[in-house]
Amino acid sequence: SAASDVYKRQDGGCVNTLVDGAHCGLCGETCGEGEQCCLGECADVRTDPFNCGECLRDCGAGGVCEGGACQ
Predict the structure, then answer these.
(1) Using CA atoms, how far apart are residues 63 and 70, in angstroms rounded to an integer?
(2) pTM for this one?
């Protein structure tokens, strides 16, 4: 099921690999400094124009993300 694809067992517990920064996409995959787990992929929310400041905040066509804010 879709839920079982998202929620994985880790050390006897259940983690959401779509949003858990310590288990992003897979159990044990850790996001780096300044990154958040956005739909199972680590994104640098300081510079990512599709995840600017937070997951799924899109700066739009040609938009630039600087310091977590769309420019």
Answers:
(1) 7
(2) 0.76
